[in-house]
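Notes from the pairing session

We agreed to fold both candidates in a single pass and log them together. This is the raw record for the first candidate, unedited. Please don't reformat it; downstream parsing expects exactly this layout.

Candidate A
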Amino acid sequence: MKKYAVISILIIGLVLMFAGCGQSEQAEEVNVRMELTKQSTLDKIVASGELRHGFEAGYMPFEMTDKNGDFIGFDIDMGKKMAEAMGVKWVPVNTAWDGIIPSLMTDKFDIIMRV
């Protein structure tokens, strides 16, 4: 269980690190100032009690739907374990792949992953 908590923190850290890649220097400066005044993603997840996991359910075996319409796959299992390790509810957010990064940037969900 400790292993999943460490993996969760590393994945969230990587998502946050890559979120700012490719921005102009001025936009980066504005983001740094904004980051100082707002909660971290991890704090927001814990405060809301939900880990919103973004994915597109068409990439077998990572994300897919079963006969009952439930989401299954490697990424789904990892997202559920991360939420469990954090003590929050796992919330699936099925999103078209071409909009997954913009949706992450506009806070439609907290994480995306590929294991």
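Candidate B (folded immediately after A)
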Amino acid sequence: MKLYGIPNCNTVKKARTWLDENGIAYEFHDFKKLGISEATIKQWLAQSSWDKLVNRAGMTWRNLSDAEKAAITDNESATQLMMTKTSVIKRPLLVKDDTLLALGFDESKYQQLLTP
């Protein structure tokens, strides 16, 4: 299982703490240090819409110009944005065997997905 995000994000910290406290093994993928591949983003886009993957409530999105925001209209434009500005990706993303299990952190959803 892999958790994608950035280490200083509070929501990512909550997800990591929950996984650690529940003894669930995962690999952490830091967008800031490792970036993200186009192939990975396309896998996610096959499972979720671009408007759910792009965090329009975050500072990265809000700091884009109106023209830059208006240019994000489809999977291709969203992919390019997510590759160049990884902080715009909603986080954390929990992935197992190339399947996107959860977008963001919701303790009850993690509980339901990951505990017997």
